[in-house]
From TrEMBL, chain A:
Pfam families: TPP_enzyme_C
Identification of the protein by name: 2-oxoglutarate ferredoxin oxidoreductase subunit beta
Organism: Desulfofundulus australicus DSM 11792
Compositional bias of kind Polar residues: 135-147
Domain Thiamine pyrophosphate enzyme TPP-binding: from-to ranges: 60-209
Region annotation Disordered: where it falls in the sequence: 132-161
UniProtKB/TrEMBL annotation, chain B:
Keywords: Oxidoreductase
InterPro entries per UniProt: 2-oxoacid_oxidoreductase (IPR052368), PFOR_II (IPR033412), Pyrv_Fd/Flavodoxin_OxRdtase_N (IPR002880), THDP-binding (IPR029061), Transketo_C/PFOR_II (IPR009014)
Source domain of life: Bacteria
Location of the Pyruvate flavodoxin/ferredoxin oxidoreductase pyrimidine binding domain: 23-246
Protein name: 2-oxoglutarate ferredoxin oxidoreductase subunit alpha
Molecular function in Gene Ontology: oxidoreductase activity
A Pfam entry, by short name: POR_N
Domain Pyruvate:ferredoxin oxidoreductase core: 259-331
Length: 254, 362
């Protein structure tokens, strides 16, 4: 028998290998999330909601109760669920199109109401499932199917600063961070802190994750990592943006 | 905290929106999600005042998309959840209700119809029949009760929760602005004393035990990989719907035995039609009355039997033939002539109906 890499306990083994493209970042985000669920021991009361777009491929990913919803609507479904049964841990998982475009009103208002849910938004700078169109997060100059000559900020604006926006409209009690698939240990900690924030009943928690889509980026491994590690952070600053009543990562121990 | 919102029964005089709030309480509704739109606002106003007294919850959402999807979330958590809307809000509500159809979620939605298309009027219409019965990118896998008066608003709102949770199809109360805003006498009651057993809600997600260890995980989706996969699911749904349709369908009728013309209407308009038919029959005009109470599914058997034996239907509605289209489909092949009295977005009186009938019968 070949050696299998260690999977999180909360992963559903019979649905692996997963359905994402080779090189996709979703598997890494979901690994970090699985580890966070394991470490917090919440497999029995977590409810995972996934959006439309590539995130829907996670509908049978975990040994966790799961609801796959509509494009942009995972936030209200998980909000409604959490309001109806506050003992559950509600996780809304979506892409940048779902969170920042079609479902932006839900993200803004759930954040403003300080809903006690955790939103995880995977940012791969374009719409993956529909074939690589421009998203609110597409980088200036980046070529996509609907910006074939490169995104022109004069015509279509600059990349949406999601966590910064969420931080600006939430009050104390919210947890907001931006992680990256290039630093999984850090990402797992952010996800864990976001979930802990919900478990403590503090308020809204939001983690954006910088991720990769080599299929639509048409990049090889080296170019993919360059995009994730060098290009995206020029516009999307990785780190904790808002931490309730505490210090941000790196500040705690001086 | 008082146990029951209504002890025994009592005679009251209230608006239809207030009736809906009391009925939802009596039906054991646990949470309402809502967004303001006229003419349904007072359902929320009364609910927000009453709900805390009985340990019930409310969330005001950012729009009707969210009101519908949070209602789906509440149902998934195993609570009797509902929302209410109208007009353009009903348009937005179609997206969440298509998910409810796809996943057989027992949502309850109260629609108080207003003028259309677009913003139109905040007052009244019967122009949301097509949308409420067949809306969304789906196949109309829903149950729609069209009420005519406040007593029915109370009775059928309670029934809607039972129907939804028993059969697991999204269920609608189709009212209108007149019913919403008008004050009427009715009897409100504890369903227990009428022998109405409330169907218990149960969670879809978050049942006891560790998924994958103590039980399989519940994983619900509305997206399929291949055509056949979707087809198989829908075939099952259609079979279920067909089976329950005769149990769910309701109608009322009179004067059919000797009628040469039958006036067909639904909702509040049927009150004008009922009064007109009674008056005409007293004058010796051979006219009958037929009213589907469920618009989805329609009472097809009773309707076709009537359509087989009378020559003419006069379809009366405050819309440009939305009920008529449903009737034509249901009565296809029957030798009945369909005549009309359509006043889209406008109320219809018994006098309107009497004069139209006399115009036809000469």
């Amino acid at each position: 028998m070949s050696v299998q890499p260690a999977m999180p306990k909360s992963w559903r083994v019979d649905t692996k290998p997963h359905k994402f493209c080779p090189g996709c970042g979703h598997g890494l985000v979901l690994k970090a999330l699985g580890q966070a669920i394991d470490e917090l021991g919440i497999q029995d009361r977590a409810v995972f909601g996934c959006d439309i777009g590539c995130s829907l491929l996670a509908w049978d990913f975990f040994n966790v109760d799961t609801i796959q919803t509509h494009h942009g609507r995972t936030t209200p479904v998980i909000t409604g669920l959490k309001r109806a049964n506050p003992n559950l841990i509600g996780i809304a998982y979506m892409g940048d199109g779902g969170g920042y475009a079609i479902g932006s009103q839900h993200l803004v208002n759930a954040a403003a109401r300080n809903e006690k849910i955790t939103v995880i938004l995977v940012n791969n700078t374009q719409y993956g499932m529909t074939g690589g169109q421009m998203a609110p997060t597409t980088l200036p100059g980046q070529k996509t199917e609907t910006s074939p000559y490169g995104r022109d900020p004069e015509k279509t604006g600059y990349p949406t600063q999601g966590p910064e926006m969420v931080a600006a409209i939430t009050r104390e009690g919210a947890y907001v961070a931006r992680g990256t698939v290039a630093n999984l240990r850090q990402l797992k900690n952010y996800l864990k802190k976001a979930l802990e924030n919900q478990m403590a009943g503090n308020g809204f928690s939001f983690v954006e994750v910088l991720s990769a889509c080599p299929t639509n980026w048409r990049t090889n491994a080296e170019e993919t990592w360059k995009m994730v590690e060098e290009e995206m952070p020029k516009y999307f600053k990785v780190g904790e943006i808002k931490v309730p009543g505490g210090q941000k990562e790196g500040e705690a121990n001086g | 905290m008082p146990d029951k919102p209504i002890e025994g029964e009592k005679r009251v005089f209230m608006t239809g929106n207030e009736v809906v709030a009391w009925a939802a309480l009596a039906a054991g509704a646990e949470i309402m999600y809502g967004y303001p739109i006229t003419p349904q606002n007072e359902i929320m106003h009364y609910w927000t005042r009453l709900a805390p007294r009985y340990g019930r919850e409310f969330l005001q959402t950012e729009d009707e998309l969210s009101a519908g999807f949070t209602t789906c979330g509440g149902v998934l958590a195993g609570r009797k959840a509902f929302t209410a809307t109208a007009g353009p809000g009903n348009t937005l509500m179609q997206e969440p209700m298509s998910m409810a159809e796809a996943m057989r979620l027992p949502t309850v939605v109260v629609i108080q119809q207003r003028g259309g298309p677009s913003t139109a009027t905040v007052i009244y219409s019967q122009q949301e029949v097509t949308m409420t019965t067949l809306g969304g990118n789906g196949e109309g896998l829903r149950i729609v009760y069209s009420t005519a008066n406040h007593q029915e608003l109370f009775d059928y709102t309670i029934k809607a929760f039972n129907t939804a949770w028993k059969y697991r199809f999204p269920t609608f109360i189709l009212g209108d602005g007149y019913q919403a805003k008008m004050r009427e006498s009715l009897t409100i009651y504890d369903p227990d004393i009428r022998g109405i057993e409330l169907v218990q809600a149960e969670p879809f997600l978050g049942k006891p035990g560790v998924p994958g260890v103590d039980r399989p995980p519940t994983q619900l989706r509305n997206t399929y990989n291949v055509e056949e996969e979707l087809y198989e699911v829908l075939e099952g749904y259609f079979k279920d719907y067909e089976k329950i349709a005769p149990e769910v369908a309701e109608h009322e009728a009179f004067g059919l035995e000797d009628a040469e013309l039958v006036v067909v209407s639904h909702g509040v308009v049927s009150r004008a039609c009922k009064a007109a038919v009674k008056e005409l029959r007293e004058e010796g005009v051979r006219v009958g009355y037929f009213r589907p109470i469920t618009l989805r599914p329609l009472p097809v058997k009773a309707l076709r039997e009537t359509a087989e034996k009378v020559g003419k239907f006069l379809v009366v509605e405050s819309a440009q033939g939305q009920l008529a289209r449903l009737l034509k489909e249901a009565a296809f092949g029957c030798p009945v002539e369909m005549l009309e009295l359509f006043k889209p977005g406008v109320g219809i009186t018994a006098e309107d109906v009497v004069s139209r009938v006399k115009e036809i019968t000469g």
